[in-house]
Amino acid sequence: MKVSVIVPIYNTEKYLDQCIESIVSQEYADLEILLINDGSTDRSGNICRKWEALDARVRYVEKENEGQGIARNLGIRLAAGEYIIFVDSDDYIERELVGRVLNRITEEKADICVYASNGIGDKVSKGMLEYKLVEGSCVKENKELLGRQTPILWDKMFSTAFLRNADIAMSNRICEDLVYNARLCIQAGKICFLDSPLYNYRYLREGNFSTNYQRYFEVEESIRELNEIFQREGNFEEYWLQLYEISFTMFKDILFRIRVKKEYHAPAEIKSRYPNFFRSYKSFLSRWFCRYLTMEFQEKNFLLAGSYSLRVIVHSMLLDEEFLRADYAAGSLVSMMSDSYEEAAFGEAIDSKVSAFLEGISSGGVKFKNAYRKRCVEQDVKKHFRRDAKLEEMDYAAVDLLEEISDLIKLREGCYITDSAFLQEAGADALDGCERIPFLSLERRRLFQKYAPLFAEKVRKAKIPVIVVENYLCEKHSGYYDRFTEYDAIEWIREANRELEWCYGYLRQCLPEALWADASEFRELMFTHDDFPFGMESVYYNSSYYQRMAVRVNQAVREGQEAVMLKTLESDIEKYDRIFLIREDEPLKEKLLEAFLASQAARKTKWKVLVLADGENKYAMGGGVEYRQITKEYARRLLSLYHMYEFSDRFRLISTVEACGNLFHFAEAGLLDAEEVWEALLC
Fold it and tell me: What's the predicted TM-score (pTM) here?
């Protein structure tokens, strides 16, 4: 069974020999190697001709420079093999790649087989597939396959017949494989996996996507094309969540490379434009997904009180993680709100060894794996949240209760610290003689009942909206998303989860105004990934859970905003006979508004009318018409409410871009005149 290997080439003479040699040296020999020279101006052509003369399986094709996507399209048309893989000309593959992947894809009778890769940069990053299934699946059965697949082609083998029947071509735009890959995934009858790092990706090579910074500005165009295709084909509503994940992940990755990843060496000119990238990406996400999510909190300051898993969730929902301004992880609410050991000096004496250990946390006498863990423990010991947290600088507080499961170490009455994993890793022999209060005890429940209300009172006084993320211990773990193993301590975990459920219920009584996010819609994702970098512990999850919970938190915030907005709008509805909203993306917005206010219908109406629109112009009112300016974000939310609830016959939309049943389309067709349109809207 022949496999075609398609290699698009453009000015990669430095790496090309290694690339081609890794292909011709494959253990599986029945290959067709298509070297597509896309108008290289260096010695790449000579190298290709050399290999064509050395190996009869090599076919060399020269063409004018049109881009990698066009070169790949040509390779697909020329391919004679039953299966196809793509190899970028600056990368190289392991000798067993073709044989092992071919065995897998034919055994599974799949259209696509996904395999792992290594990142080759300043150092080799061994890669494994994070998202994978034991048994193959398709997107219609498992939507996660669309949102969780890497938007690239070189980590996959394809059935040639499938590629041709799909009848899709790649463009020359950057990220052309993002659009192509997603469209293939949606059509594939079956996708399977091989969790072996068989491909070596040189991600820091000068000239590729990672370092071609000027082309970062084109990324929006590719993602817009993808969303428009799904919208045009009637699939956007069904797959909006997966399209959001693709869009968000791509944007965040670029922002992270520019601001944080030093090895990418982003030039000063690109770094200086970081705010432009950020605002543009945020605006893009808002335009496409405002019906489901809010982007308003992307520039809000967050405080975290809870577990490391909560930190991952907050990071997963922010384009710029720097907006997580305060992080009180690895601490129980009981410990956070109790007295510090310095205050204990006025009460019962603390053992000198214990005191020396606690002082050593701040002074450096106690060693931690990293500065973050040290800071978390120090904040817990010093009671920084209760004493020094600048809550007035925060816009939201995110809370979970996973850290409640850790034992409390009692230093004296009213003074507790959390026996967290971070504290244990630092070594705490000096605390062995202290009393420990386990989570599953009546004493611990009594302490939670005492200190949870103090936490609630503190955040309520600061007038911070609180988001409670209802995380529980995982009862199972796996390296796959369709086959799981229960933890050995399953009975204790289940009992602990029942107690956590009680704790969340009690916190809800303390904070009835809080926003709540839980995993009720995706409980199948509640498991620990075996390869989680900090260990296979039941307090950790998997990347799909973290991303999905991040979306759920966003939805909780949006629902809270909508509830407030709906209450306000319902109040307005009682005062007005008609409420008009002019769409934020309405191209004739100002002309429509002027025309309405100047119309006979508006001047003669005896009804009380409210017009809502964003903009800076002031308009004279006439008759019973009142005009109110609103922000673009507010306009988007109102539009979303209009679509979701259509809650009042008094609510009207003034829009020429609305597709369904719009009166302005009748006016354009000559079936109504403008005055009749305004009268119809008012009646």
Answer: 0.86
